[in-house]
């Protein structure tokens, strides 16, 4: 999401554009020039977004302030000093070519990087203690030993001041073999700054006569070179084409499609971010959302025994969702006529690197948008809908997450995650059982049950900056059957409750009342319903956090304990698990921000919405997992004066080239003709 041309030929970037490769180089050079040749690594070099106050004037939504003629371009830098491991935050002005601030911090751990993970793995597989552990298991070829370095979560006997990781060990029969079919039974604990092993933990069999398991050597693979001889022979091509080109327009990182307008950006932590989302309603361009992103996620595992209780990965805050993004392949990850955006990051030396095709933009047919058949005449009026898809896919060790924003022609916004990849596995002794906390997906291979929680940060501006959140519960009328007000017992109605403060703004999903929430603007009413204009938010992917209050997981990931949180807008509250989430204790997180009662009515608010899945693993999830889909939807709720997609033209077979599968018929009726039913 950056241009790689020289800065002399490039127009000035938009204030929300991610840093270019030249700006990353400029930032690192300014830091070195200011601080000399100190021994440190560049953990993060990223855009410091301008304040919301400035940008609301820049976008023209705040009429009380003039649009700024220029917005200062700043980089935010996180540095880790060596050998101390101390952390430094710096703000660098790219406009003024200087380091503006330099703040040293203690006892915090920033996001882990791929450089660190590669260093840790290279050290581990060459370490004599690891070789000795492998030799006891009958493994002597260390070139086939691998590890997945994970964040430590919280190690109960090692303080948070040391930057540490835990490494889950695996073996491969060949370079492309599936390592998760051969898990090993020990875990090195590593000091990342010193790049040395602190200790090695063995995972002892629990209900077994054996001291250590044998390592299963049966292959379980899915790459074509292993299984292509078994491929189905009856899969015919499906070709998606847009012979007249796409319906969207792209100007840098700004996207226009149908009546939608928005900007996107991409950063090391959240990955894809949507900015300044609006919808053209007749002659009026109506603001909807200032900023939306996946703020944090957590994947807590079910097994309470050591070391498995430490397996609760914060894939946004601990690893950086953006840093884990894939380079997408045309015709594989995205189908049809595609536009891509690249993403730029930095390595430990401050050098930029580019992930090409990090974000995919395309259109999809989405089936019926609406339809009605006049039964008296047989006339069917059918309009097919399409959606704009903005997506990226990340790989965090074993798991892959495909993340999709969908915009629809009727004003609906949907966010969807498809979880796939490989389930985390643990070796069992020959006579050992996984117990209630997992399932044996192959002989001696235990895949542990777990959950996935995703917390979105949604910064609304529904027809203006001041919004309110309302809770809607559908309930039967109080009067019993036979009462004059409920004579036949069928009465029910929606009960709307305004959430007045940050305590009331903590809520759980409730299937019994078909609960949903509305973001409303009480200063603007729908002319017909007389209700405040708004958008509703609903999800069919609600599941409770199973970890108990006070547990290590719940203390660090308390944001997953509620479906909804509402806070007054604060510039520095971007991440539900806290800015320094890695090895955190939970003191800087969404539950802590909402302990004090603060008003949230008719003001600049942020909605935090959590959805997810409880993954009770199946044998069918191995050796590679079919997608598990979850997400949420936001729909206009008394926002328009009619169906906003009423002006979408119908399609027909001459446009979409639909044909009969097994017979040729030339004179089929189109989607809006009268069809006489056969007798």
From TrEMBL:
Entry keywords, A to Z: Copper, Disulfide bond, Manganese, Metal-binding, Oxidoreductase, TPQ
Transmembrane among keywords: no
Co-factor binding comment: Contains 1 topaquinone per subunit.
EC number: 1.4.3.-
InterPro entries documented for this protein: Cu_Am_Ox_Cu-bd, Cu_Am_ox_TPQ-bd, Cu_amine_oxidase, Cu_amine_oxidase_C, Cu_amine_oxidase_C_sf, Cu_amine_oxidase_N-reg, Cu_amine_oxidase_N2, Cu_amine_oxidase_N3
Domain Copper amine oxidase N3-terminal: from-to ranges: 110-201
Family annotation (Gene3D superfamilies): 3.10.450.40, Copper amine oxidase, catalytic domain
Post-translational modification: Topaquinone (TPQ) is generated by copper-dependent autoxidation of a specific tyrosyl residue.
Catalytic activity: a primary methyl amine + O2 + H2O = an aldehyde + H2O2 + NH4(+)
UniProt domain Copper amine oxidase catalytic: residue ranges: 240-646
Active site: 315 (proton acceptor), 399 (schiff-base intermediate with substrate)
Residue span(s) of domain Copper amine oxidase N2-terminal: 14-102
Residue positions where 2',4',5'-topaquinone is found in the record: 399
UniProt entry tagged with the keyword Oxidoreductase: yes
Top-level EC class: oxidoreductase
Superkingdom in the source lineage: Eukaryota
CC cofactor: Cu cation; Zn(2+); Mn(2+)
BP GO annotations: amine metabolic process
GO molecular function, a single term: quinone binding
Similarity section: Belongs to the copper/topaquinone oxidase family.
PANTHER family from the UniProt entry: COPPER AMINE OXIDASE, COPPER AMINE OXIDASE 1-RELATED
Xref: NCBIfam families: PRK11504.1 (NF008559)
Subunit architecture: Homodimer.
Protein name in UniProt: Amine oxidase
Organism for this UniProt entry: Umbelopsis ramanniana AG
């Amino acid at each position: 999401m950056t241009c790689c041309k020289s800065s002399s030929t490039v127009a000035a970037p938009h204030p929300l554009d991610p840093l270019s490769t030249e700006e990353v180089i400029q930032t690192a050079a300014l830091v070195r020039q200011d601080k000399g040749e100190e021994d440190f690594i560049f953990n993060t070099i990223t855009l410091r977004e301008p304040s919301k106050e400035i940008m609301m004037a820049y976008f023209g939504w705040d009429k009380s302030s003039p649009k700024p003629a220029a917005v200062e371009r700043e980089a935010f830098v996180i540095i880790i000093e060596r050998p101390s491991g101390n952390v430094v935050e710096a703000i660098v002005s790219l406009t003024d070519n200087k380091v503006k601030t330099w703040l040293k911090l203690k006892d915090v751990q920033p996001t882990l990087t791929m450089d660190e993970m590669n260093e840790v793995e290279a050290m581990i597989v060459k370490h004599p203690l690891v070789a000795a552990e492998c030799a006891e298991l009958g493994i002597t070829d260390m070139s086939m030993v691998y590890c997945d370095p994970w964040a430590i979560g919280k190690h109960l006997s090692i303080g948070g001041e040391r930057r540490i990781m835990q490494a889950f060990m695996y073996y491969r029969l060949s370079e492309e073999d599936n390592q998760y079919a051969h898990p090993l039974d020990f875990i090195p604990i590593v000091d990342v700054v010193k790049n040395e092993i602190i200790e090695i933990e063995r995972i002892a069999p629990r209900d077994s006569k054996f001291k250590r398991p044998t390592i299963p050597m049966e292959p379980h693979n899915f790459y074509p070179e292993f299984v292509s001889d078994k491929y189905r022979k009856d899969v015919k091509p499906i070709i998606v084409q847009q012979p007249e080109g796409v319906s969207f327009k792209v100007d840098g990182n700004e996207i226009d499609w149908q009546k939608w307008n928005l900007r996107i950006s991409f950063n090391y932590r959240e990955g894809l971010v949507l900015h300044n989302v609006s919808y053209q309603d007749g002659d009026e361009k109506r603001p909807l959302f200032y900023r939306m992103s996946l703020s944090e996620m957590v994947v807590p595992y079910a097994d309470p025994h050591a070391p498995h209780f430490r397996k609760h990965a914060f894939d946004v805050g601990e690893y950086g969702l953006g840093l884990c993004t894939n380079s997408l392949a045309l015709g594989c990850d995205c189908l049809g006529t595609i536009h891509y955006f690249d993403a730029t990051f930095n390595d430990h030396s401050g050098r930029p690197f580019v992930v090409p095709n990090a974000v995919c933009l395309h259109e999809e047919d989405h089936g019926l948008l609406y339809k009605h058949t006049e039964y008296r005449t047989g006339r069917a009026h059918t309009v097919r809908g399409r959606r704009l898809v903005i997506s990226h896919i990340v790989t965090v060790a074993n798991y892959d997450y495909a993340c999709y924003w969908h915009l629809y022609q009727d004003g609906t916004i949907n966010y969807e995650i498809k979880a796939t990849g490989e389930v985390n596995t643990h070796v069992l002794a020959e006579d050992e059982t996984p117990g209630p906390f997992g399932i044996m997906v192959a002989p001696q291979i235990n895949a542990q049950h777990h959950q996935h929680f995703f917390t979105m940060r949604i910064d609304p501006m529904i027809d203006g900056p001041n919004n309110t959140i309302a809770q809607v519960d559908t309930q039967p009328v109080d009067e019993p059957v036979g009462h004059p007000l409920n004579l036949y017992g069928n009465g029910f109605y929606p009960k709307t409750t305004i959430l007045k403060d940050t305590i009331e703004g903590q809520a759980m999903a409730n299937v019994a009342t078909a609960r949903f929430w509305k973001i409303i603007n009480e200063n603007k009413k729908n002319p017909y319903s007389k209700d405040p204009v708004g958008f509703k938010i609903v999800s069919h992917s609600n599941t409770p956090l199973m970890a108990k209050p006070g547990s290590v997981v719940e203390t660090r990931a308390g944001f997953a304990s509620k479906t909804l949180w509402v806070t007054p807008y604060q510039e520095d509250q971007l991440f539900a698990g806290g800015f320094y989430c890695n090895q955190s204790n939970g003191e800087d997180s969404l539950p802590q921000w909402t302990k004090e009662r603060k008003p949230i009515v008719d003001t600049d608010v942020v909605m935090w919405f959590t959805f997810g899945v409880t993954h009770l693993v199946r044998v069918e999830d191995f050796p590679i997992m079919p997608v598990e889909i979850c997400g949420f939807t936001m729909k206009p709720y008394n926002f328009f004066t009619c169906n906003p997609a009423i002006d979408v033209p119908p399609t027909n077979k001459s446009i979409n080239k639909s044909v009969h599968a097994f017979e040729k018929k030339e004179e089929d009726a189109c989607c809006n003709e009268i069809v006489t039913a056969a007798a």
